[in-house]
Design brief:
Elements lengths: L4 H13 L2 H10 L2 H24 L4 H33 L5 H9 L2 H27 L12 H5 L17 H12 L7 E7 L6 H9 L2 H6 L2 E8 L4 H11 L10 H12 L4 E8 L4 H11 L6 E7 L2 H6 L2 E6 L5 H12 L9 H14 L3 H11 L5 H10 L11 H10 L3 H9 L9 E2 H10 L12 H14 L4 E5 L5 E5 L2 H11 L3 E4 L12 E4 L12 H4 L6 E4 L16 H13 L5 E3 L20 E3 L20 E3 L21 E3 L21 E2 L1 E3 L25 E8 L19 E8 L10 H9 L9 E5 L18 E5 L18 E5 L6 E9 L5 H5 L8 E5 L6 E7 L7 E4 L11 E5 L19 E5 L2 H6 L8 H4 L4 E4 L1
Helix pairs in contact: 1-3, 1-4, 2-4, 3-4, 3-6, 4-6, 8-9, 11-12, 15-16, 15-17, 16-18, 17-19, 19-23, 20-22, 21-22
Keywords: ATP-binding, Leucine-rich repeat, Nucleotide-binding, Plant defense, Repeat
GO biological process, one term: defense response
GO molecular function, one term: ATP binding
Length: 955
């Protein structure tokens, strides 16, 4: 078991037993005395756990003693979980309803007595076992009841960007680029290898080369794949095709894969990077090369590897041996990681210790980053002195000793972070870890603790993640266009470290593995599961305390087409899982062809996370609401799901209802608005027949109370008819954590006879919070948009589609953050922008100084058949009280880089000032005959205005 894990579990048990809910249930069930005994016993154990966990590596007696504690503590946690479920059911009892009679019957004195007796025996048995274990405590353990690192740690400020810090590799980069460009072989395809010990930064250097502009221009095709220890032709072929966004490669047989791969590379000068190669079998290499030889002259394969044998096996023409950083480069990297703003410390003792660390780590940049990140939170001389005296001697740059060096940074983590990092041993090398899912998994396992009841556990978990990231336990962090973290990876050495510290508690299973340790607590499967061909190994069934059952290999299945639907093999699998793994907190059943959720799953009392994504389920059974501990229910791509459980409001712990991809829901169950703790609800579908929420369906008003929602929200089947009849309020205005909103009215809804103000009101009530980043509107039938558009000061992407009655766009031109604007199928739109202000013909000086659409980078205008121009301003002159001036020359689109116009036959000109657009790189015009004629190369009237644009496509 990983160090700190038992301490963390014990801390959770003590916290539970001290809560008011457990005091109440203890009194009701007559087990309060046993609860008190258990708490006292666990407190005594916790006092020595930190010392025992540190000593178990070199002390077999302590190790065996801890194993006995582990079994008892995990069982205690399960029993308390059952009590917790009953306490929650008590909270659900309503005041005076018919339902409450049945619920109260359960809590009658007789049922309380039965439950209390049953659970009392379990608690007594655990107390007895723990007492026996305590009597056998090894004598040399020290009492230390406080996780000092947890108490003393300072909050990390994250003031620097936690990405690969590539220092001192400029010469290496240029040398390898030269090798890739030089004609080093008579063959079309030749191989270059980067050889070096683990942690030197081979992959980081290869990424730097891969993304270099010279390389980008030289090679017609670039492909990057991580190989690791699996060098099988079909797997490599799939990875190469997937890297080029080839669809559905998992359904291809070997002949099809080979044909597709040859077509991909034949005749093209390509660069293929094979990262982290371990293959020493020349026959496997030759089979791969048979598929790759057809590349154009000058094609290169760049390999990163730890051994020269791999380079020789790969017929490397020019090997490049990567060396460690010199002392100056190492000190520069260490300063960047260990000190604020990378500045050299003034304290001479701290500097001296730092220099000594550098001298010991200079062969391995990963060790420098890791140790530097560990020391970043230590600001006092005594802390650095203690590190020098106790830890420095353990640092070694030799390859065989890298893991012990990296483990130093693990050893000083507080117990809660140790637990979270060890869990990541479930992810194989180079796996793209979804950060939001990782956070949900940590929460589901009970790793996340907060002493502030108003602090959300997911927010605490995200802080844990950032601390581990800043200490280089994670790397290659990816963010979306809004700067929100989406995924990360672990260096292969960090993956090895996670496996080392998790011990026998975790395993990533491969298809042929048969033997498993009975102490196993967490298991993941990194291959496609087909239940007609695979059975749970017998030895795995003996590990009946498993808490995580995670399928990773299913995630690449993008379509259910062709997958086997539920059969007898499925039913046997479910029965096996439920009967053997009763302590599961997380269960993956994704992409298994499930049509009906089996009844046996209702027994999974401890389940927090259930992944049913990618299945054929049409309806979820009503009993699923009885899984009272469930926090995450993932229904992504359940392409036949039409209905959610009608009593979903009973799932009081549900925080993440994940509805991503195509899911044909017909409505939302009434009462969903009572789940005020829900943070993820990607979709809210209004019933076709009942948008007001009468009967069994939820209406818009129920959204009003779900103010913890974050991420994205899609609202479907909005109606132009119903808002004036209902007390909807403004259900979205207080949702400050949403960054993306999709508003979708009923397609083709007849609005004849509907008052225009009521139509507009159907949008007005949907005003979002001003924090919103992305807004998409579909099938809205008003002639104008809601007034709140001008308040979207943080909007980045705006999309308006199929709004066929729209005559006026909202005032978008001054939105400071708008970067992307997409307009399509706006059948009555005549002008992009209309000024409501009267002015002189020459425009006012103030308006001329304004930069319209100041941040817009991408503008797409498609299928707007009556669009005439870009700008119309009302003017006042002697001939008429009101007239218009079109296409005035205005300081507009200063940041625009891409302009696409398609099927706008009445548009006659580009925006005035196009010649002055310094950033415009791409112009696309199609289906616009008058505009196309004006922009024709050389002869068109507007050609001089656009000739400077690098990429022009007009047809």
């Amino acid at each position: 078991m990983a160090e700190g894990v038992l301490f963390n579990i014990a801390e959770g048990i003590i916290g539970r037993l001290g809560s008011l809910a457990f005091q109440e249930i203890g009194l009701i069930c007559g087990v309060q005395d046993e609860f008190n005994k258990l708490k006292e016993t666990v407190v005594r154990f916790q006092a020595v756990l930190l010392d025992a966990e540190q000593k178990q590596t070199n002390n077999e007696v302590v190790k065996l003693w801890l194993q006995r504690i582990e079994d008892a503590v995990y069982e205690a946690d399960d029993v308390l979980d059952e009590f917790n479920a009953e306490a929650q059911r008590r909270q659900m009892v309503p005041g005076n309803t018919k339902l409450s009679k049945k619920v109260r019957l359960f809590f009658s004195s007789s049922n309380q007595l039965v439950f209390g007796l049953k659970m009392g025996y379990k608690i007594k048995d655990i107390n007895k076992r723990l007492s026996e274990i305590a009597s056998g405590r090894p004598n040399d353990l020290k009492d230390n009841c406080v996780d000092t690192q947890f108490v003393m740690r300072e909050r990390v400020t994250h003031s620097f960007v936690p990405k690969e810090n590539i220092i001192g590799r400029d010469e290496d980069k240029m040398a390898i680029i030269q090798l890739l460009l030089d004609p080093i072989s008579t063959e079309n395809v030749s191989t270059v290898s980067i050889i070096g010990i683990g942690g030197l930064g081979k992959s980081a250097l290869a990424q730097l080369i891969f993304n270099d502009e010279v390389i980008h221009k030289h090679f017609e095709l670039k492909i990057w794949i991580c190989v690791s220890n699996i060098f099988e032709l079909d797997i490599l072929a799939k990875k190469i095709l997937k890297a080029n966004k080839h669809d559905k490669v998992d359904q291809l047989n070997m002949d099809q894969l080979q044909d597709d791969l040859r077509k991909k590379v034949d005749g093209k000068k390509y660069l293929l990077v094979l990262d982290d190669v371990w293959n020493e079998d020349p026959h496997k290499w030759l089979r791969l090369m048979d598929l790759l030889r057809g590349g154009g002259e000058g094609s290169r394969i760049l390999i990163t590897t730890r051994t020269e044998i791999v380079a020789m096996t790969s017929h490397t023409t020019k090997p490049y041996t990567l060396r460690g950083l010199n002392e100056e480069q190492s000190w520069s990297l260490f300063k960047k990681m260990a000190f604020k703003d990378g500045k050299e410390p003034e304290n001479s003792t701290i500097k001296a210790v730092g220099m000594e660390v550098v001298r010991k780590c200079q062969e391995v940049p990963l060790a420098l980053r890791t140790i530097g990140g560990m020391l970043r939170t230590k600001h006092h001389e005594i802390e650095w002195f203690n590190f020098k005296e106790r830890k420095l001697s353990k640092i070694s740059p030799k390859e065989d000793d890298i893991l012990p060096t990296l483990k130093l940074s693990y050893d000083v983590l507080p117990s809660h972070l140790k637990h979270c990092f060890a869990y990541c041993s479930l992810f194989p090398p180079d796996y793209d870890i979804s950060v939001p899912r990782l956070i949900r998994l940590w929460v589901a396992q009970g790793f996340i603790k907060s002493f502030d009841e108003n602090e959300c556990l997911e927010d605490v978990a995200f802080e844990y993640y950032k601390e581990l990231l800043c200490r280089s336990f994670f790397q290659e962090e990816e963010k979306d266009e809004f700067g929100i973290i989406t995924s990360c990876k672990m260096h292969d050495l960090m993956t090895e470290l996670a496996i080392l510290v998790s011990g026998v508690g975790s395993v990533v299973v491969d298809m042929n593995q048969k033997n498993f340790d009975e102490k196993l607590r967490r298991v993941s499967f990194n291959f496609d599961i087909e239940l007609s061909k695979w059975e749970v190994p017998t030895s795995l069934l003996k590990a009946n305390k498993i808490r995580t059952f995670l399928f990773l290999g299913q995630e690449d299945r993008t379509s259910l087409f062709g997958f086997q639907r539920q059969s007898s093999s499925h039913n046997a699998f479910y029965t096996t899982i439920v009967s053997n793994f009763k302590s599961l907190r997380m269960l993956s059943l994704n992409a298994l062809g499930i049509t009906t959720l089996p009844n046996c799953l209702r027994k999974m009392k401890h389940l927090r996370y259930l992944d049913l994504s990618g299945n054929y389920i049409r309806r979820l059974p009503d009993w699923i609401v009885g899984l009272s501990n469930l926090e995450t229910l993932d229904l992504t791509e359940c392409e036949e799901l039409v209905e959610l459980p009608r009593d979903i409001k009973k799932m009081i712990n549900l925080r993440h209802l994940i509805l991503v991809g195509y899911i044909p829901l017909t409505g939302m169950p009434r009462g969903i608005g009572e789940l005020k703790g829900v943070r993820t609800l990607n979709r809210f579908v209004l019933s076709e027949s009942n948008c007001l929420g009468r009967g069994g369906s939820a209406g818009l008003a129920e959204l009003g109370s779900l103010n913890e929602l974050r991420g994205e929200l899609e609202i479907r089947n909005l109606s132009h008819h119903v808002v004036s009849e209902s007390n909807v309020g403004t259900p979205l205005k207080d949702k400050q954590h949403l960054h993306s909103l999709y508003l979708m009215w009923k397609e083709g809804e007849d609005v004849k006879g509907v008052d225009e103000e009521d139509i507009i009101k159907s949008m007005e009530v949907l005003q979002p919070h001003s924090n919103l980043k992305q807004l998409s509107v579909y099938d809205y039938s008003g002639v104008r948009f809601a007034s709140w558009f001008s308040s979207l000061i943080n909007i980045v992407n705006l999309e308006l589609r199929y709004c066929n009655r729209c005559q006026h766009l909202p005032p978008l031109d001054l939105l400071p953050s708008l970067k992307s604007l997409h307009l399509s199928c706006l059948g009555n739109l005549e002008y992009i922008l209309i000024s409501e202000k009267e002015s002189s013909n020459s425009m006012s000086d103030e308006m001329m100084r304004i930069s319209f659409f100041p941040s817009l980078e991408t503008l797409e205008v498609y299928i707007c058949p009556v669009l005439k121009g870009w700008w119309r301003a009302h003017t006042h002159n002697s001939a008429s009280s009101s007239s218009s001036t079109e296409n005035l020359s205005l300081p507009s689109f200063p940041s625009l880089s891409t302009l696409s116009i398609m099927d706008c036959p009445n548009l006659t000109s580009l925006p005035e000032g196009t010649r002055g657009l310094p950033c415009l790189k791409t112009l696309y015009i199609s289906g616009c005959p008058m505009l196309g004629e004006r922009c024709k190369k050389e002869t068109g009237e507007d050609w001089p205005k656009i000739a400077h644009i690098p990429h022009i496509d007009i047809h």
